[in-house]
Structures are given as C-alpha cells and as structure tokens.
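Work Package 3 (structural annotation) set out to generate three-dimensional models for the target panel prioritized at the project kickoff. During this period the team completed the workflow that converts sequence records into discrete structure tokens, so that structures can be stored uniformly alongside our sequence database. As a representative example, we reproduce one entry of 421 residues exactly as it appears in the project archive.
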Amino acid sequence: MRTYPIPFNEEARIRAVYAVPGLQEANTAVFDAICEATRRLLDCPIAHISVVEEDTQWYKSVVGIELERMPKNNSFCTHTIMSGAPMVIPDLSKDPRFETHPMVAEGGPGARFYAGVPLVLSSGQRFGSLCGLDLVPHDAPSEKQMAILEDLGKAVVAALENVPPKPVEQSEDQSIQSTFITLVGHELRTPLTILMGSMQLLQKTMTKGINNSLITSAAKSAKHLKGLVEKVIEFSDVSTGELRLNEQSCDLKSLLEDAASMVLPGQEGQLKTISCDPDAFLAPVLIDADQIKIALNALALNAINHGGTEITVGSRLDTAGNLEITITDNGKLDESVELNALYQPFVVGGDLDHRDAKGGLGLGLPLTRKLVELHGGEFEVRTDAASTCAIIRLPAWRLKAVEVPAAHLMETAPAAAASLP
C-alpha cells in the first residue's frame, strides 16, 4: 500500500501548484536562508522546502543533506499538506503512521524527528511544506518556535508568489466547486433515494401491514441526510474543494451492522437485505466514521440496485495487516463496465449508458474512492463469474493508532545527541 493519504481536492491542488510562476526547481538564496533559519530555530541538522506534486516530491531548497526528487511514498510532507496545521512528530518510530515508513524503518536513513508547516498559496491550496528533520528524537518545539516557523512558511509563499502589499483578487477555480458539489450532491440524493423507495413500497403494502424494516431504513436515511449536511458544512471548504477528516476511534462491529441495516427494493422491485459476515474481523479503528459510512452506504446501495440477491458486508486483514472492509454480492458485472475507469478521477465505471447494468458501477464509486484515499487507503473492485466484491482497504496503522494514547505520540525524548554535517 501507499504510505500517504491523498487530498480530496488533489486534482485542483495540482493545478494550483503548476500555476505558481516562481515555483521552479532553480533555487535562489532567499530560500536557502529560510531553510538555514529553520534548522537553527528547531536545532535540526536538516531543513527543506518541499513541493508535493502528483506522484513525486521535490525540493525548492535543502540544507544539511543532499536530496533528489523522490516518490511520495518516501515523503512526510504528503501528510503535512493534509491540513492547515503544523505537523510535529517528536519520534517518528513511535507513531503508528510512520513506524514502517521507508524513511524510518530499519534499512532506511532512520529519520526520527519531524516538524513542518504546510505552505499555503493565496488561493488556499497547499503545495508543500517547510520543515526540519533529525535522525534522533526531539522534545516537541515550543509554541513560540512553531509560530516563528509558520511565519517563515508565509515568507516562502510570499517570495514565490511575489505578493504585493495589497494582495490581488484571486480568481476561483470553477471546476473545483463543480466537482465538489456534483459528488457531494450525489450523496445528498442517495439517502433520499432510499427514503423514497422505501416509502413507495410501503404505500403498496399498507393493506398487508406495516413493514418495520422498511420504516427503520427510511428513518435511518433521513437521519443520515441530516448528519451529512452538518458534516459537509463543518468539515469542507467549497472555495478550495477540500474535505477534512474528523478522525475518532470507531467500533467495526457497529460500522458493519449500520451498513447491514439498509433494507429496500432493488430495481426489479424485489426487497433486498444485507447480512454481516459472521467471521468478520472486529476491532476498534481510527477513521472518520461518517465518511466511511458514506462510502459503505454508496457501495451497499450499488449492490442493492445493480448486484445479486445475496449481499454481505464484512471485514478482514490482508497479509500485510491492512484492514479490508468488503461489500460482496453474487451478481456479475456487465461486460461493458470498465473497471480500470473506476480509478480515474471522477469517471464512472464505463459508459454512462451502461451504469445500470447488472452489478454495474454507480456515480457513488468515484466519491467512495476519494474518501478512502483521503484516509490513506485504497479502493478496489474484484469480480469473477460468481460474484462482485468492493473492497475498502485501510492502512494497518489505523488499527494500531487506537491502541496508542495521543499523549504518547507527543512524549518528550532526550535532546539530540548527534547530527548530520
């Protein structure tokens, strides 16, 4: 698996990176001076200004070591750009996110301390970070040190953008809002689809008595819609197309049972239910439960509308210890469905004319992929002659993180006793 999360607005972020006139690999003295100030401020042997592109990370300036362009799998700054807040890791080897990271694990350079701030363009997009690194753990920097580091980061951006005393008005990237509203709008309609389908069937069966399962499903969908609207408002930024995670410990059992509680008729009018795998792996996991529920609901609805008659939700560990949450049905994908298209940005799985094919891929799947990648995970669909399985694969550290108190990740360590030239 990859070792980094992918921003929800990655396509728009990349466009913003390429649009900065001063963001070229040729360096100037001002950026070296800022890096020198950074390593003195943090008492680190290494400091750099990183630029995170689509697949790689390169450096506008590096002091204390020679670094070439590297794959994002070797980058810490891919995590720093996920929010507007600084990222400080006193000991990378004690953080579940990084203990197996190529730059931290045995055989690598043995990075231990990291402190960085995201570099934010005037458009609001984050393109990289200003950070300090060491091969030994450090105490966490003081608030004053981090405030100065943030100011140095703003100086980097100002030098790149050549910002005048009165910043010019920034034009909006219209495709950002269009993409964001389209995808989230689809998920706003999904619960309503469940609600209306359930109610319509209830109207036809009123003479036979009230179907409690359908009423429960309808009520759940209404509650889901209300909560989703609140989360979109609280954790999203339409101006940049960004969506942030609200990560908390979540019980897998309740997550699976919530997905399995969905009951509604498929396109043929046949009432379909979802069962939980009795052998499912159950443990607490650190996720944004609301966003993963959105993804699971989209997959469950897709299976109900386009899949077979038997639908199962489950969870398991892969050979590397990563968590896989699965929705499996006994339906077969239509030959017109292009699985490879699922992994392209905002592309429905194949021709729109075939999206209602048996076992087909719906509009919710590109959004599911982006929500999973936002968690640092991967989304995959496997199919054979007898079944279709949608897999949400989350990195192993999300299981370990709930076992490690937050305070432990920030515990103090002995002062640096060694340094690089």
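The first strand starts at residue 46 and ends at 52.
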